[in-house]
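Batch manifest, entry 17 of 40.
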Amino acid sequence: MKGIKTGGREKGTPNKLSREFAEKYDELITEHEDPLIILFKMLSDSEAERHIKVKAASELLSYRYAKCRAVEVTSNVINKPAREMTDEELMQRITVLDASIAAHALA
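Output type: structure tokens
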């Protein structure tokens, strides 16, 4: 049946390869440093080849830490300088911005 899940893994359950990779990664991190720590240490390191280590660590980061997504901000408020707005337009802008800040704080 199309659209109805009838078997397999539950949604969000990592596949065997992803789970094994994460387990092996966690095991190796206990023996070595976390890539994020390496990045911070490399910032103050004066070794000539640090760009190679930083590149390697940054590549590993994506396997362990989620990447941030861009957030699109939209508004239906008139786009003109505040000094040119009427009192009603200013109140509308304040209301929209306040709701946006509140929604972002709860997210």
